[in-house]
Amino acid sequence: MNEDRGTYRPLSYFQLMEVSLRELLVEKGVLTDAEVDAAVEDMRRRGPERGARVVARAWTDPAFKARLLADGTRACEELGFDLPALRLVVVENTPEVHNAIVCTLCSCYPRMLLGLPPDWYKSREYRARMVREPRAVLAEFGLVLPETVRIRVHDSTADMRYMVLPMRPAGTEGWSEERLASIVTRDAMIGVAVPKVA
Ligand code: FE
Known about the structure:
The chain is an alpha/beta fold. The protein has helices at 13-27, 33-45, 49-60, 62-70, 72-78, 111-114, 119-122, 124-132, 134-140, 177-181, 186-190, and strands spanning 87-92, 97-102, 150-155, 160-165.
C-alpha cells in the first residue's frame, strides 16, 4: 500500500501490528481476506444514517428515548444495530445544556452509527480546542449558543463512545420517522450543529 504513494515509507508500529494480526488470523483460518475486505468496505460506505434513525426513533417514542439514555448500546440493538464491546452513552441536548463530543487522545467515534469520522474530528486542533474553548469552536462551526446555555464536552475513549441526541426542532410536528431522520446530520450528532427545518 505504501509503494502506491510513489515513495517508500516504512510501516508504522500500528500498521505493522495490523498486518501481522490480520495475516495470522487468515493463516489460522479465523478470517478470510475476503471477509476483512468486505468489513472494511462496509465501514467505508457507512454514513450517519443509523445514528439518524436512532435519533428519529427517540424523538417519536418517549419509552425508547428513556431506554436509549439509560443504555445506548442495548437500545441500538433494538433497532438491529450491534455495537460489539462498546458502551454507547447518549447525551441529550436540552434548552439549558448543549453537548458535544471529542476524543482528546485520538479519534474514537461512534463509527457503527455515524460512519467514518470527518478529518477535522481527528485534527489536533479540534481535539485540543474543543475541551478548552468549546463555545469559540462551536461558533466557528456556525453554531452560536446563548451564554445561558451550558456546554458539556464529552471525551470518548477506546471502550466508551458518545452520541449527541439533539433537540427536535419546532415545526416538525406530525413528521414520520423517516422524514425526521432526514434532518439529523452527522454534525448534529457530534454536537457541532443542530438540526434545522429547511
Ligand atoms: Fe480516540
